[in-house]
Give the backbone structure.
Amino acid sequence: MEAKKDILWRSYLVYLLMLVVGGGIVAKTVFIQQSEGAYWRSLSDSLHLQYREMDAERGTIFSEDGRMLSSSIPFFDIYLDFGSEGVQQKEGNFFRSKVDSLAIQLAEIFADASVAGYRRELMGVFNRGDRYYLFKRNINFNQYRSLRKIDFIAKNKNRNGFIFVEKEKRMAPFGLLANRTIGLSREYLNEDGKLVSINVGLERTYDSLLRGVTGKRLVRRISGGAYVPVEGQEIEPENGKDILTTLDINIQDVAEQALLKALQENEATTGTCIVMEVKTGKVKAIANLGRQADGAYKEDFNYAITRSEPGSTFKLVTMLAALEDQFINLNTPVNLENGKWLFSGRTVYDSERHEENDVTYQRAFELSSNVAMAKLGVNYYARDPQLFLKHLEDLNLTSLSGIDLTGESKPLIPRPGQSGWSSIAIPWMSFGYNISISPLQTLMVYNAVANEGRMMKPYLVNAVVKDGKSIKTFTPVELRKAICSPNTLKQLKTCLEGVMVNGTGKGLRSPYYSIAGKTGTALVANGKKGYSERIYQSSFAGYFPADAPKYSCIVVIKNKPFASKYYGAAVAGPVFKAISDKLMTVDQEMYASYTHHTDQDSSGGAYTGAAADFKMIAKHTGMKFNDVSRASDWARLETGKKSAVAEALPAKTGIMPELRGFGLKDALELLEAQQLQVIAVGKGKISRQSIPAGTQVFRRQTIYLDLGNKSDR
C-alpha cells in the first residue's frame, strides 16, 4: 500500500512539473509575441529582405545628324517561381487548366521548341515546386512584350510565377565604325584575379552623364539562397543623359574604308585618320585601326591622340618659325648638299630622292628636304633654342590638345639641360625627329593655317541632351586668334599648295579641285630592336579645297618592317585623296566649286533605262529590236539605222552604276533602291554624276546629277 502511494506521489509531482514547464513555455510565447514580436519580425525581415541596386538606363550617343552610335538595348532573363501560393492555388488545378494554352503561346513566341516540349518543361517545374528556375536568358524586348500579353501572365499579376529580370547590353548599330572613339567595354583580370570591365573613348569621358543615377529594388530571399523581387518596392533609377557628337557617319565611313584599304594593301601595322571642320574644330571623323594576330584590322587603340615622331609634316612648324622671325623668305637660297649633310658627327639625309641642289626654301619645302630644315635650325636657332621652343608653345604643341577624350598622350619636347638634349636636338627637331606629338596636334596647326591663322580647339561633343532637350551645349573654342602674321600665313599656304603642284604630293593632285598639304616619312624605332627593322611611319596632312578650305585631314600609317613602299605620298597620301575626292562630290557646298569635265553629252543615239520599257516601245513601234539584256532589269539601248540593240546594264547593291544616258525617273528608282539621296539639276538625260561609276557607296550618301548639256540650260 505504501509503495502504491509512493508511486502516485511521484506521478503527481512529474505531472505538476510538466504543467509548470508548459505554463512557462506558453507564458514565454505570449511574452515574445506581444512584447518582442516586432523586434524578432524585423530581424527576420532583415535576413530575408534586402535592397539591391538597379542600374539606370545608360544614355545614348548620337552622331551629329541624330543617328545612334551607341545605345543600351534592354534584355530580360525569365525565372519561374512555380512553388508560390499563386501558382499552387486550388491544389494546382488552376495552373493545370492553363498550361496547355500557355505552352502553345510560348512555342509561338520563341519558336525554339514544340508545344509538347514546353508543356513537359512547365509541368516539370510545377511538379517539383521550383522557386527560382531559369527558364529563358537574354530575350529581347519584343519577346518580352509578347510574353506580357499572354492571358495567364497578364490577368494573374503577382500570381503567375513568372519573374522578369531586366538588364541591358551596350550595342553599336554601326558595328566597329568609330568604335574606339565612341567607346567600348574592355575586360581584363586585375591583380586579384577578378574580371574588371572599363569604358574608353566618349563612353568613359562622359560616363558620369551617361550612366544616370542608380535606383534600388527590394528583393526577398527564398529557398536555395535565391532572391526574387518584391513587387511595388522599387526606387526608380534616373536614366542617363544622351550625348550628341560632332561625328558624321558618312565621313567616318569614308575615312575608315579608305584607311582600311591602305592598311590591307601595304600590310601596315597601325593607322589613324582624322577629319576636322576647319572653321569650328569639330572632329567629323576619327579612325584608328591596328593589325591583329590573324591579319585582320580593328579599332584597338586611339592612335590619333598617341604621340610619335611627326616626321616631315612638322616642317610646316619650322617654316612658320623662320618666316615669322623674318630669318628667311620663300626665295632665300639654300644648298641641299646633294641630299646629305654632316653636322656634329651625325649625317642628315633627304629621304625623298631628288636631283636638285641650289634651290630656294620654298622649293626645299616642296622637295621635303631634311637638309634644308636642319640648316635652318642650326643657322638661326642653335644659339637660342628657346626662341624656337617658344614657337612650339605658341602653337599649343607643348600641351594637350584638350579634346574631350581621356588618354591623350602628353607631348615629348626636349629642352636644354634635360635628358635627351644635345647639339643635334634643334636641327633634328627641325625636320620632325627628336620630338613626339600626337597626329591630332599636328592637324591643329594645319587646320589653323587653313582657318586664316585661327587655331581652334578640337572637340567631339555638340550637346548633352535630357528627354530630348539640350541641357548643355558646346561651341567652338578659339585657342589662338592668330598663329602668325598675315604675311607668314600667305607664304605657308603657298608652300603647302606648291607641294601638291611641284613637290612630293604632285601625284595626288586633282584636276577638279585644289589641295594644300604636306607629305611625311619618318624612320621609327621598334623597342629594343631600334631602327634595325627599317620601320617607317608615313603621313600626310592638309586641307581642301585649298582656295576655300572646309575640311582639314591627317593620315598617319605605321608600316611593316622592311616595307617596299613607305613614302608618305605613296601610303598615307592616297587615303587623304580618297577622302577628299568623296567629300568634294557629296558635300553640296563644296560640290559647287568642283570643276567638272567639259565634255559634251555624247550619248547620241544611246539610251539607258529599264529593259522592260525598251521592249514595250519596240513592240508598239514595230522597231527591229535585238534584246541581249537577258533578265537584267536595266539596259543600254544603242540605236542604228536599221535596228536597236539592248545590252544588259548590271546594277550591284553598294556600287554606283553608270548613270549617263538615264532619264531622271529611272535614275531615281535605281538610286533610291540603294537608299541614296539625290539632288538633280537641269533637264533631259543625265550627263554627269558626282560619284563615278564603280565607286562603293553607302546608305544616305548624297549624289548630284547634272541633266542635259550646259547649252540646254
User: Anything to note?
Assistant: Residues 2-35 form one domain. The longest helix spans residues 2-35.
